[in-house]
Design a protein that fits this description.
Blueprint lengths: L2 H8 L19 E6 L8 H15 L3 E6 L3 H4 L14 H18 L5 E5 L1 H4 L4 H7 L6 H5 L2 H7 L8 H4 L1 H16 L3 E5 L3 H15 L4 E5 L13 E2 L2 E2 L9 H9 L3 H11 L4 H13 L5 H15 L1 H15 L9 H8 L4 E2 L3 E2 H7 L6 H9 L3 E3 L2 E2 L5 E2 L3 E5 L3 E5 L1
Helix pairs in contact: 10-11, 12-15, 12-16, 13-15, 15-16, 16-17, 18-19
């Protein structure tokens, strides 16, 4: 399948400036995509864009991954109702390193170059910037930007000169990469298209060159209408310290039936016939949730590696499937311990129920036992007793306690 055909099929095509999208099927294109280091981790929104990059790379195009050390010092104002809090140079350095490590993992085995716009902005003086960029950007086009209009409107919070100028900095990034690396295309989310076009205009005005934008749709939760990847506890991060591997896996495992095939196309490298076969099997037996299980396995493996993906699948199957608790190793027990109440052994069963906050008192703990509402490794327990060996205790439908 040609790249243009694959991107259409996977749902990666929004707007672009190409005369014909099939132009991406002709010869090598040097392209770039940027991310601001506002955090030391990317989210699954960034991951969707990274998967778009993967397809460009695998079809023979040359990737430049820009981590915006300069733009990160300002912060992208697009879509923000208020001025961003500025980050220190140390924070930005830490965040850049976190993102670089995630890119190295996601793109392992692929050819790509990481660049940092701080490298070309740190020695540029203000007059030089105004002469190169300021003279070639009409104020009317900057004022027309939607985020500027909203911030300057009657109910807007106002906008600083720094954030107002953000698009100039991003536009110069494209100009610099065009001049020094022959980059002629920028990939972006559809909400970033205006910033990208500013760079295209600069290249045309200063060098008379031709450059293009290729945007992908934002991945939207079909039920809520908000950006996909926002859970009750906030964004879903790629860093296990921010979103645990278990929580990450569960997020994909709980994907909705109406969205899961679309997400298999976006977030995995499975081939068309593989995904279509999964779709057929899901329709034949929806309760199998084969699509969700495949999605969770594939994305967790991509982001966290096969070993951790295998472990979290095992832990999930112990909690909700037929996997035996005794099969878990110490690392898997540690993973489980981070997700459910954990009580130290030896201990008696009623005290375990109280210490884990499953029961509010010893009396309530005894009543749970008398009501046959407590089981150990799948076996109902009706009387209080001392527990010496590690085990998984379950009360009610889905309340678990790890005793170890």
């Amino acid at each position: 399948m040609k790249l243009s055909e694959e991107l259409h099929w996977r749902g990666f095509v929004a707007q672009n400036t190409l005369k014909n999208i099939s132009d991406i099927d002709k010869g090598e294109i040097s392209f770039y995509i940027g991310v601001d280091p506002s955090s030391d981790s990317m989210t699954i929104g960034n991951l969707a864009a990274a998967m778009l990059v993967r397809h460009f790379i695998e079809h023979g195009h040359k990737a430049y991954l820009l981590v915006g050390g300069a733009t990160g010092l300002i912060g992208d104002p697009d879509g923000k109702a208020d001025e961003r809090l500025q980050k220190t140079h140390d924070e930005i350095s830490k965040n850049k390193e976190g993102i670089r490590l995630q890119y190295d993992h996601i793109f392992r085995g692929q050819k790509y170059t990481i660049v940092d716009n701080y490298d070309w902005f740190k020695n540029m003086n203000y007059l030089e910037f105004l002469r190169i960029v300021g003279k070639n950007v009409p104020l009317s086009s900057m004022l027309a930007r939607e985020f500027v209009q909203s911030r300057l409107g009657p109910d807007g919070a106002g906008i600083s000169y720094a954030e107002f100028s953000y698009s100039l900095i991003q536009g110069y990034d494209f100009l610099h990469l065009y001049k020094n690396h022959k980059v002629s295309m920028q990939l972006c989310g559809s909400d970033q298209l205006g910033n990208v076009i500013a760079g295209i205009d600069l290249i045309r005005r200063i060098y008379g060159g031709e450059a293009h934008a290729f945007s992908m749709p934002l991945v939207i939760n079909k039920t809520t209408g908000v950006k996909f990847g926002k859970s009750e506890s906030g964004a879903v991060w790629l860093d296990a310290k921010k979103t645990s591997v278990y929580a990450f896996y569960q997020f994909w495992l709980n994907d909705e039936d109406e969205s899961v095939i679309d997400h298999l196309k976006i977030y995995t490298m499975l081939l068309k016939d593989e995904i279509e076969n999964i779709e057929r099997l899901q329709k034949e037996n929806p309760s199998s949730r084969i699509a969700q299980k495949t999605l969770a396995d594939e994305v967790t493996t991509l982001v966290h590696g096969k070993d951790r993906s295998d472990s979290v699948r095992k832990v999930t199957n112990v909690l909700f499937g037929n996997e035996e608790f005794s099969k878990l190793n110490s690392k898997e027990l540690d993973m489980l311990s981070a997700e459910i109440p954990t009580v130290k052994l030896p201990n008696n069963l009623v005290d375990i129920l109280v210490e884990s906050s499953v029961a509010k008192s010893k009396g309530e703990g005894r009543r749970l036992l008398e009501a046959n509402a407590v089981s150990i490794s799948g076996i109902k327990v009706a009387e209080n007793k001392v527990i010496n060996d590690p085990c998984l205790i379950k009360t009610g439908k889905n309340k678990f306690i790890l005793a170890r």
